[in-house]
């Protein structure tokens, strides 16, 4: 970690425990700290507290509406996820290893997650939620069935974030070209998230 800290400009942190860990590093004052959307930054009080803790940017909660975003105060940069599958759950249980990898108390996992397949969980409405196992400590990230894509021209933010999983180069170029002008992608596979409707 000390070596890494000497060769990067900063870190995107997902929870406060990581901040405590960084404070243990010698000479970490040059590092920029960004609070990920997992901090669930939902109001000005949180933004101000994160600023006091040394963060220079916050990625706002994807649950905020347009009005809530524009009403936020605080003196650090604000960013939103303008495009991407939002992770709805991180699980210590690996459905891929258990179902496709035959993992049980009697047999080890055959590691299907290392073989390049795509995996989904289907809900009662026939919506498919992408499952990404990490094949390191058997955690799984489960992503929303629809891709968030929102217009950002009229939002009080400093930057946007584009999250991709395995989009091809042509799709990625379309995503960038659309969102750099504050527009959104439309279609059955996309959602506005909560930008126009509160949680």
Commentary on this structure:
The structure is a single chain. With 199 residues, this protein is of the alpha/beta class. Helices cover 22% and strands 24% of the residues. The chain is built from 6 helices and 11 strands. The strands form 2 sheets. Strands 1, 2, 3, 4, 9, 10 and 11 form a 7-stranded mixed sheet that branches. A 4-stranded antiparallel sheet has the order 5-8-7-6. The longest helix is centred in the C-terminal third of the chain and has 11 residues. The protein is globular, with a radius of gyration of 19 Å. The chain starts with a helix and ends in an 8-residue tail after the last strand. The mean pLDDT is 88.
Explain the layout of strands and helices.
Elements lengths: L1 H5 L3 E4 L2 H8 L8 E4 L8 H9 L4 E3 L6 H6 L5 E8 L2 E5 L3 H5 L19 E4 L5 E6 L6 E4 L3 E3 L9 E4 L6 H11 L10 E2 L8
Parallel strand pairs: 1-2, 2-3, 3-4, 4-10, 9-11
Antiparallel strand pairs: 4-9, 5-8, 6-7, 7-8
